[in-house]
Write a sequence for this structure.
């Protein structure tokens, strides 16, 4: 049962992203929103980490949060809220890392 | 048939209400016979450390609540091996008997529950 993991906290000084990547199943998706999109910042350690994780089409980032922070999606598939809702229906369940 | 839910608790015990609230959710769910599991991850594993004395920081001990989990029917209790090792906690000293799982087993665990929430 594939899971969509949703993270909204900045990955800097917080273990959520690293732990999530360890627990991520081979069919699970990861959606970054809020401050979690800082993980995609060009040249950052977390960007390298995500690249190494090789999620391909299973990594998503929320468009408005990228725009607000002047971050380019790059590695991630950029989605709006409609697509976010569609994704949460596509996966069997959503695990929000509160 | 009620949907199964895995509660992932990843906060240390005495720094805010998160650890206690995750435990309260598990106990409440257990009281209603919901099929629940609980996973201690990241700093959440510190909840399982033995010989804690939270009275020193004016907090109530969580140990009684933790011990109550099996009595409330929450018997699927797990801890992350990586989180324990990183923090120098030995599995055989923990205040509550839990199944210690490696990353691959944790991936399978999350997959088999109907719902998952990480607090």
């Amino acid at each position: 049962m594939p899971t969509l993991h949703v993270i909204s906290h900045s990955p800097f000084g917080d273990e959520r992203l690293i732990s999530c990547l360890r627990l991520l199943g081979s069919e699970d998706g990861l959606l970054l929103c809020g401050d979690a999109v800082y993980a995609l910042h060009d040249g950052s350690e977390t960007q390298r980490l995500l690249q190494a994780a090789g999620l391909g089409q299973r990594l998503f980032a929320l468009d408005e949060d990228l725009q607000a922070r002047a971050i380019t999606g790059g590695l991630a598939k950029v989605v709006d809220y409609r697509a976010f809702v569609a994704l949460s229906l596509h996966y069997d369940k959503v695990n929000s890392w509160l | 048939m009620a949907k199964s839910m895995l509660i992932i608790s990843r906060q240390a015990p005495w720094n805010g209400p998160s650890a206690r609230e995750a435990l309260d959710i598990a106990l409440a769910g257990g009281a209603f016979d919901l099929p629940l599991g609980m996973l201690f991850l990241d700093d959440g594993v510190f909840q399982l450390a033995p010989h804690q004395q939270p009275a020193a920081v004016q907090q109530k001990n969580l140990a009684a609540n933790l011990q109550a989990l099996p009595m409330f029917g929450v018997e699927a209790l797990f801890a992350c091996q990586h989180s324990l090792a990183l923090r120098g906690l030995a599995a055989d000293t923990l205040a509550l008997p839990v199944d210690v799982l490696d990353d691959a087993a944790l991936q399978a665990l999350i997959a088999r529950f109907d719902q998952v929430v990480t607090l």
About this structure: The first strand of chain B starts at residue 5 and ends at 9. The radius of gyration of chain B is 14 Å. Chain B has one domain: 5-118.
